[in-house]
Predict the 3D structure of the following.
Amino acid sequence: MTTLSLVTGGSRGLGRNTALSIARHGGDVILTFRNGAEQARSVVSEIEALGRKAVALQLDVSDVSSFGSFADAVRAALSSTWGRNRIDHLVNNAGHGEMASFAETTEAQFDALFDTHVKGVFFLTQALLPLLADGGRIVNFSSGLTRVSVPGFSAYSAAKGAVEVLTLYMARELGSRGITVNTVAPGAIETDFLGGAVRDMPDLNRQFAGMTVLGRVGVPDDIGPMVASLLGPDNRWITAQRIEVSGGQTI
């Protein structure tokens, strides 16, 4: 049976690349978007052009109150599009960044980061557990910034650090169902994260490239295929791991 993955934040950036990479590996995809409906439809079209099936559903991962109705929407999509009642993989990718010094970070910035990256991941995964097949996979996205410190990312990195600890507990408690849970931690990547700062600001790009042993910053194609590979059958014995994909950033 074809595998089916749910990728949050799949309309752009690393989520888009991950969704397309899964399709190139022969899988079908449910992807979510917050505001970019047109972008999401474009990704669905690209996946369909690869001969795979895809559905895009709206979701705000910071709004826990919406998760019950979202699970119902997933259940309906599973029935109408695939004639099944389970997904095989959940990729918790959706998120945003804030760059502010520790002294200047506001409570609103802090709350938005933790609501999205920690509370959202926790309770969305909880809401989708009845729809996740035994023997399935969960991948949570973290960041290379949990291992090294770069001024301006204290709240963001603390949230991602919480995700890494949460991954360990998910792996422990879901292992009895044969579900693996891992963290993927990208380094600096050329996406529209922080308004495209790494991609569009040459000085920042060179700064991060200089910290990386392979001599450049990453691109989405460095991340999505790795996640798709992690979801494959050859990696069934990997769980509770933090896997950094950073080209050797700051080693």
Q: What stands out?
A: The chain has a mean pLDDT of 95. The radius of gyration is 17 Å. The helical segments are 13-24, 37-49, 67-82, 107-128, 154-174, 197-200, 202-210, 224-230.
